[in-house]
UniProtKB/TrEMBL annotation:
It is found in: Endoplasmic reticulum; Mitochondrion inner membrane; Mitochondrion outer membrane. Heterotetramer of 2 alpha/HADHA and 2 beta/HADHB subunits; forms the mitochondrial trifunctional enzyme. Also purified as higher order heterooligomers including a 4 alpha/HADHA and 4 beta/HADHB heterooligomer which physiological significance remains unclear. The mitochondrial trifunctional enzyme interacts with MTLN. Interacts with RSAD2/viperin. GO terms for biological process: cellular response to lipopolysaccharide; fatty acid beta-oxidation; gene expression. GO terms for cellular component: endoplasmic reticulum; mitochondrial fatty acid beta-oxidation multienzyme complex; mitochondrial inner membrane; mitochondrial nucleoid; mitochondrial outer membrane; nucleoplasm. This is Trifunctional enzyme subunit beta, mitochondrial. Its EC number is 2.3.1.155, 2.3.1.16. InterPro entries: Thiolase, Thiolase-like, Thiolase_acyl_enz_int_AS, Thiolase_AS, Thiolase_C, Thiolase_CS, Thiolase_N. The gene is HADHB. The keyword Hydrolase does not apply. PANTHER family: ACETYL-COA C-ACYLTRANSFERASE, TRIFUNCTIONAL ENZYME SUBUNIT BETA, MITOCHONDRIAL. Mitochondrial trifunctional enzyme catalyzes the last three of the four reactions of the mitochondrial beta-oxidation pathway. The mitochondrial beta-oxidation pathway is the major energy-producing process in tissues and is performed through four consecutive reactions breaking down fatty acids into acetyl-CoA. Among the enzymes involved in this pathway, the trifunctional enzyme exhibits specificity for long-chain fatty acids.
């Protein structure tokens, strides 16, 4: 089915199509244009009558490719490890924590409220409430902003927010016919009734229902959407491979230089200590070019090399009111400032959340793109990132799809995902948001910046963007 965006491209005059204007700039040769650099504002984003909310610190256990060292664990084991890592890092007394919120996507049915099970396992009091949220790839973003809301409203002073995903062991269900039969068996009172139900079972009843990373509303996998989006914005296979190679190269550099300080070791029971992400694998353009299309075959441009991989992992951050943090003697890492959630068409604009969210959050904060020192965007696919950068840099897209007079501009690459991203570090669906926030905070300190923008797309055509402000040093 021809997409809305593709039809829009063809409907433009030949001299001004997206394909012509966007493909004229090779990712490898010419940097994307962006807003002119203006004198940076040094104002704080504190607001009268509004509590300052800070992230004291945050950790994550190493993000691992699914099917590796975490394969025999359960989601609450990973979440518990991230909670214990946070307790060790911050020395926060468990009794001080008012509330715990975790995000996850593919839920283990035995621990549907994984936040509660992880909290109990980590030694928190059974009097500490905990709940789990799900919002696809921005689930831990939602966990963090839920914590912000609890503190801002005066309900809490100290919240732990996090996220977890274990793609090594996802629930696989019986077919619906078999489930109905098994439930009826529970209600059958006589042997005859049971035998009659068994007699109805057919071979197709045994076909399992496998989970899929697909949109319920469109039945289309996210990879297909990414391929169509890349085609709509005339993003070549070479550009996508170049961006993916950039992500892996920067991530390896960050690992080697000890910059990923949010990672805490995790001793997997019966196995060695895990100390770093295992999906960081810089390759070469030649090797990446040999891979076949992963979704739209045989001519698609999205491959295993330029896509994020199935990942296991967990993360956690300690959020407090500034007043509480200072009273406890903490030096926070950053303020959590304005944030927005956005939503658009899940068919044609599934992965454009950062494009819609970034200008809105900048306007809420009274900032421009030039004020931002650090950008940390979730990398679902290389094509998705490049499509967002091109959409953000397009007056035409802003006017025709966003109801804006002009573009917000594309983040300059020298400020963008400089320590790697989800393509290389991994993407445990429910845990990535906390990684983005902590990376932004650490980069701001390392690079001497003041403001960071965290943004991500998510299934359902949704997205999130947040302003992170470095805490005064």
């Amino acid at each position: 089915m021809t997409s809305m965006l593709s039809r829009a491209i063809r409907s433009l005059p030949a001299t001004s199509t997206w394909a012509v204007r966007f493909s004229a700039r090779s990712f490898s040769c010419s940097p994307l244009s962006h807003a002119a650099v203006q004198p940076k504002s040094k104002k704080t984003l504190a607001k009268n009558g509004v509590k300052n909310i800070v992230v004291v610190d945050g950790v994550r256990i190493p993000f691992l490719q699914s099917g590796t060292s975490y394969a025999d664990l359960m989601p609450h084991d990973l979440a518990r490890a991230s909670l214990q890592g946070l307790l060790n890092r911050t020395n926060v007394p468990k009794e001080v924590v008012d509330y715990i919120v975790y995000g996850t996507v593919i839920q283990e049915v035995k621990t549907s409220n994984v936040a509660r099970e992880a909290a109990l396992g980590a030694g928190f009091s059974d009097k500490t409430p905990a709940h789990t949220v799900t919002m696809a790839c921005i689930s831990s973003n939602q966990a963090m902003t839920t914590g912000v809301g609890l503190i801002a409203s005066g309900q809490c002073d100290v919240v732990v927010a996090g996220g977890v995903e274990l793609m090594s062991d996802v629930p696989i269900r019986h077919s619906r016919k078999m489930r109905k039969t098994l439930l009826s068996l529970n209600r059958a009172k006589t042997l005859g009734q049971r035998l009659a139900l068994f007699a109805k079972i057919r071979p197709d009843y045994f076909a399992p229902e496998l989970p899929a990373v697909a949109e319920f509303s469109t039945s289309e996998t996210m990879g297909h959407s990414a391929d169509r989006l890349a085609a709509a914005f005339a993003i070549s296979r070479v550009e996508q491979d170049e961006y993916a190679l950039r992500s892996h190269t920067l991530a390896r550099k960050a690992q080697d230089e000890g910059l990923l300080t949010d990672v805490v070791p995790f001793k997997v029971p019966g196995k060695d200590m895990v100390i770093k992400d295992n999906g960081v694998r810089p390759s070469s353009m030649e090797q990446m070019g040999k891979l076949k299309a992963a979704f739209v075959k045989p001519y698609g441009t999205v491959t295993a090399a330029n896509s994020s991989f199935l990942t296991d992992g967990a993360s956690a951050v300690l959020i407090m009111s500034e007043e509480k943090a200072l009273a406890m003697g903490y030096k926070p890492k950053a303020y959590l400032r304005d944030f927005v959630y956005v939503s658009q068409d899940p068919k044609d604009q599934l992965l454009l959340g950062p494009t819609y969210g970034t200008p809105k959050v900048l306007e809420r904060a009274g900032l421009t793109l030039a004020d931002i020192d650090v950008f940390e965007f979730h990398e679902a696919f290389a094509g998705q990132i490049l499509a967002n950068l091109k959409a953000m840099d397009s007056d035409w897209f802003a006017q025709n799809y966003m109801g804006r007079k002009s573009k917000v501009g594309a983040p300059p690459l020298e400020k963008f995902n400089k320590w790697g991203g989800s393509l290389s570090l991994g993407h445990p669906f429910g845990a990535t948001g906390c990684r983005l926030v902590m990376t932004a905070a650490h980069r701001l300190k390392k690079e001497g910046g003041q403001y960071g923008v965290v943004a991500a797309c998510a299934a359902g055509g949704q997205g999130h963007a947040m302003i992170v402000e470095l805490y005064p040093q």
